[in-house]
Amino acid sequence: MTAEIVNLNKVRKARERADRERDAQENRLKYGQTKVERNLFDAKQRKSQADLDRLRRQSDSMLDDDDPGPDNAS
After folding, report:
1. What is residue 14's three-state secondary structure?
2. What total of structural domains would you count in the chain?
3. Does residue 37 form part of some domain?
4. Gap between the Cα atoms of 53 and 59, Å rounded
5. pLDDT tens, residue by residue, 23-74
6. Which domain range does residue 40 map to?
7. First vs last C-alpha separation in the chain
8. Contact at 8 Å (CB) between 74 and 68?
9. DSSP state of 3
10. Consecutive H or E run containing 37
11. Which pLDDT score, from 0 to 100, does residue 73 have?
């Protein structure tokens, strides 16, 4: 009767690799976002910032029109 020879280094490394992959999968589920979700979030952020900037410029131009400066003094 012959026993199968097992390389303990390979077994240990395979177990550690499986553990790291399991941990990585758990972290992906817990913390991760897909690339599509990240891109959508970034696009929404850029749009909202652009909307704020546009409104800020509009309100600044309205204030400039109402404010009599040295050129508009009557």
Report:
1. helix
2. 1
3. yes
4. 10
5. 999 998 888 888 899 899 999 999 999 999 998 887 777 776 655 656 655 4
6. 33-65
7. 112
8. yes
9. P
10. helix 35-66
11. 54
